[in-house]
Amino acid sequence: MIQEKKRTFNVFAASKGLRSTRQRDNILDVFLATHQHVSVEELYLKVKAVSQGVGQATVYRTLKLFVEAGLAREILLHDGQTRYEHVLAGEHHDHLVCTGCNSIIEFENETIEQLQDEIAARHGFMIRSHKLEIYGLCSRCRT
Ligand SMILES: [Zn+2]
Ligand SMILES: [Zn+2]
Prior knowledge:
This protein is an alpha+beta fold.
């Protein structure tokens, strides 16, 4: 799975005329090994631990490339922060985002997915991707 992701990214990078770099490979390795919704800074700190000399701006630009390549998804927090997660083939979920503590809860709901397909079909619309982020207070922040 991870090898496949790497190959996908290398094909994408080549199509954009980007030569492969050690730094980008390291960032991809660390990102694919992370099973969280990470901020640029969090990922940067993880990358720094294994690959010195990588700047936060490089991590940021590389994450943007991963999003463009379809390897990563962005989750927008209410205060303008962005978190990133990697997309595993065939896996889809949506998010409840807490505006109190910025925690992110994942959920999957077949009915919601079907409704989206029905709405798109009614409009003759072909869905490529979607994301659903619901903002509010988590149970801990409500008390
Ligand atoms: Zn909360
Ligand atoms: Zn998620």
